[in-house]
């Protein structure tokens, strides 16, 4: 087991990297057993990525590097140069001229179909996020692969993508939590700059700070709840909701509260919200391990 694959998820604010054994005997079905290590850094913190790769090369040969990115072309080039700086050509599988194989959204991956009108227009992070959520649905929860599923990512932008019958049927994009806070500060004369926190979420805010916190969090949770309802109306199934992204801790309690009240009032099964840390990397690893 000396062949190592590195995965890169390059977002608008942060970069996540994971190393795993490419030919681990259980890599196709159980991602965790094949993982060597992973790291999350902010954009431009390339020295930390260099240190990560240096440590990984002590364990074996890096055969391939796969990545997805929604960041700028400059960041993409910087990441490629990180891997060009290493002497990785001793692995016959590694291509120094194309150090990172950048993947894109597709019409189909395994049994999952992408119904986006323009396949390539779907953010590649959203595509591999839904693949990762589907992996957790079928391999960890052991649930029928055709049930209703939603993947929510709370990052720089918030995305809410819906799946049914193993088809990505569409999704929504809205400004992320911090972007909403910042827009209120920049676009008004007297509203204060507010940092992300769940401590001031109250039913009836009596301070401006709490009013902004509560309003923005409720807007985010409401956008998710709308898609939960719409998917239920379409399928008559209470969807499984997978939640990821750096801002999720601030919002997930509000989502759970809204869903609990709705399920109880409507006499439905409770909405199951599952928090995930690295859904895109999970989707990437499953894809790379199984694409043959």
Automatic annotation (TrEMBL):
Biological-process GO terms, alphabetical: coenzyme A biosynthetic process
Family annotation (InterPro entries): ATPase_NBD, Type_III_PanK
Keywords recorded for this protein, A-Z: ATP-binding, Coenzyme A biosynthesis, Cytoplasm, Kinase, Nucleotide-binding, Potassium, Transferase
Reactions it catalyzes: (R)-pantothenate + ATP = (R)-4'-phosphopantothenate + ADP + H(+)
Enzyme class: transferase
Binding sites annotated in the UniProt record for ATP: 9-16, 156
An annotated Gene Ontology molecular function: pantothenate kinase activity
Predominant location category: cytoplasm
Pathway it works in: Cofactor biosynthesis; coenzyme A biosynthesis; CoA from (R)-pantothenate: step 1/5
Places the protein is found: Cytoplasm
Pfam families on file: Pan_kinase (PF03309)
GO cellular component, one term: cytoplasm
Cofactor: NH4(+); K(+)
Enzyme Commission number(s): 2.7.1.33
Binding site for substrate: 116, 123-126, 208
Active site: 125
Cofactor mode of binding and number, as noted: A monovalent cation. Ammonium or potassium.
Biological role stated in the UniProt entry: Catalyzes the phosphorylation of pantothenate (Pan), the first step in CoA biosynthesis.
Subunit structure: Homodimer.
Family designation: Belongs to the type III pantothenate kinase family.
HAMAP family in the cross-refs: Pantothen_kinase_3 (MF_01274)
NCBIfam families referenced in this protein's UniProt entry, alphabetically: baf (TIGR00671)
Protein name in UniProt: Type III pantothenate kinase
The organism of origin for this protein: Taylorella asinigenitalis 14/45
């Amino acid at each position: 087991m000396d062949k190592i694959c590195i995965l890169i998820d390059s977002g608008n604010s942060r970069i996540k990297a994971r190393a795993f054994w490419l030919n681990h005997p259980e890599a196709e079905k159980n991602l965790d057993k094949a993982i060597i290590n992973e790291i999350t850094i902010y954009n431009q913190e390339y020295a930390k990525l260099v240190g990560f790769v240096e440590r990984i090369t002590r364990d074996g040969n890096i055969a391939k590097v796969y990545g997805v990115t929604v960041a700028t072309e400059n960041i993409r080039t910087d990441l490629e140069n990180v891997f060009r700086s290493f002497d990785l050509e001793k692995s016959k599988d590694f291509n120094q001229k194309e150090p990172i194989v950048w993947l894109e959204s597709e019409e189909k991956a395994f049994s999952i179909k992408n119904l986006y009108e323009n396949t390539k227009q779907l953010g590649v992070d959203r595509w591999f996020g839904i693949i990762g959520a589907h992996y957790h649905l079928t391999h960890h929860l052991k649930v029928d692969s055709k049930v209703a599923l939603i993947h929510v990512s709370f990052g720089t932008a918030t995305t809410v993508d819906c799946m049914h019958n193993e088809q990505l049927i569409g999704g929504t994009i809205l400004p992320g939590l911090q972007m909403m806070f910042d827009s209120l500060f920049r676009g008004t004369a007297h509203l204060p700059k507010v940092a992300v926190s769940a401590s001031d979420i109250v039913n009836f805010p009596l301070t401006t700070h709490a009013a902004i916190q509560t309003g923005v969090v409720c807007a985010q949770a409401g956008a998710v709840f709308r898609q939960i309802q719409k998917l239920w109306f379409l399928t008559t199934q209470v969807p499984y909701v997978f939640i990821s992204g750096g801002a999720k801790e601030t919002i997930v309690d509000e989502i759970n509260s809204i869903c609990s009240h709705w399920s109880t009032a409507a006499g439905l099964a409770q909405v199951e919200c599952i928090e995930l840390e690295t859904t895109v990397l999970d989707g990437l690893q499953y894809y790379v391990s199984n694409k043959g």
